[in-house]
Task: structure prediction
Amino acid sequence: MKYNLGCGRKVYADWINVDGFDTRADVLADVRVVGSWSTRGQADQIRMIHFLEHLTQAEGCQLLEEIHAFVLKDTGTIEIEMPCRTKCLALAAFDQTSKPDWNVAPFSGVAGIVGDRVGMRDEWFKWMVEHADHITKFARLKMFDEILREYPEWQQVGDVHQYVWDTQELVAAMGAMGYVTRIESPQTHGKRSHRDMRVVAIKAEP
Result:
């Protein structure tokens, strides 16, 4: 069995597409509750494409732990793609341009951290113009929650991304859970290797 978690509009043939909101999914369920969408120990492959950042760090850890313990078969695999915090912060430190282009720095880094809520991009651009003197400070901030503490108005601008992992942080956390991981180049969402990460992991045999 193959599960595409948090699929949104990106549904794949021959996969069980799961989402908590989008009715195009095969299964409409809260992905955080593994028992609502999975069969114990029957998953050959799990895909999370730009989904993990929509969970808090604690929720993400719990989901990955439960997938390892209860959902994946032995030697089953999980693919994760999402923005990388370190890359996003570096992009956000670039000098801003005269108009927002969400495919280039600094806007691609900002969108990677905050999210891509429909209708919010004009508000993001306005915020960046008003706070232009703070943009370079993002590169020195180490954790996403530090950004929110320093500039709480971010939570009002767009809070669709709850926690943006650093690549090595995610690899270390998954390794501690028992996954064997490798880092690859992103394969979706425009293959934005300058901003995103792709981690593929195998559930190690007991």
